[in-house]
Amino acid sequence: xxxxxxxxxxxxxxxxxxxxxxxxxxxxxxxxxxxxxxxxxxxxxxxxxxxxxxxxxxxxxxxxxxxxxxxxxxxxxxxxxxxxxxxxxxxxxxxxxxxxxxxxxxxxxxxxxxxxxxxxxxxxxxxxxxxxxxxxxxxxxxxxxxxxxxxxxxxxxxxxxxxxxxxxxxxxxxxxxxxxxxxxxxxxxxxxxxxxxxxxxxxxxxxxxxxxxxxxxxxxxxxxxxxxxxxxxxxxxxxxxxxxxxxxxxxxxxxxxxxxxx
Length: 262
What we know:
Helices cover about 25% and strands about 20% of the residues. The protein has about 260 residues and is α+β, with helices and mostly antiparallel strands. The radius of gyration is 23 Å and the shape is elongated. The two termini are about 25 Å apart.
C-alpha cells in the first residue's frame, strides 16, 4: 500500500474520460459533484471506505444472542455463528475490522478494557489496557502488497477470547488502499475503473438533465463552452445513482462479504 488519498479518482482523470480539455470553474463544480456521487455509491456498495487512512473502531458492536448454560455460565449460540464470551475458551477469538486491507504496521494498536463504556467512562482505555501483538493477539496477515504485510479479511485473532461486553475493545489501525494500489497495475485498480464507469453513466444522465437548466454563459471560441448556475449544479447532487453492471463486476471481488458472517 502507499500514501493516503482523499478521493478514489482525480478531477483531471474524470475530465479525461469525459473529453473535457479545459477545466473552468463551472466544469470543475460539475465534475466534483459527479465524483462525489460516484465515490459515495462505491463506498456504499463495498460497505467500507476503500481509501487508505487511519481508523478507530470500538468492538464488539453488540452482545451475541444465545442460550444461557447454567453449568458453564456462559453464552451459547447456534453452530453456524460465533459467541463472544467472558468465560472459557469456546467463545469467539475473532474480531472483524471493517476497512480492508488492514496494514500490519506501527499504527495497529489494540486496547481491551471491561467497563469502558465505549471509551466514555472516566479513565477508559488507559495505557495499561494495551494488548501485546504477537502474544495476546495477532493480525490474520494474508499477503504482502507493495512490500507491506496486510490482512485482506481484516481478522484480528485473540489468544483466548475477546471480551463480550459491547465496545470494550478499541482498535486503531491503517486500512484501505493507497495511491499505487488504485493506479494502473495496482492491486485495486478495478475500484478506480468502476468509479470512473459510474461517473460516465452519471455524466450521460446529467447531460439530459442539463438540457432544461438555465445557462449562465455560452461561448463558441476554440471549443464550445457552457456554464450553468449554482442551482443547476446542486440538482446534479440529487440524482439517483445506479451502478452499471461492468462497474459492479469490477467491485464484486472487493466487497467485504466477511462482515456478513462475523
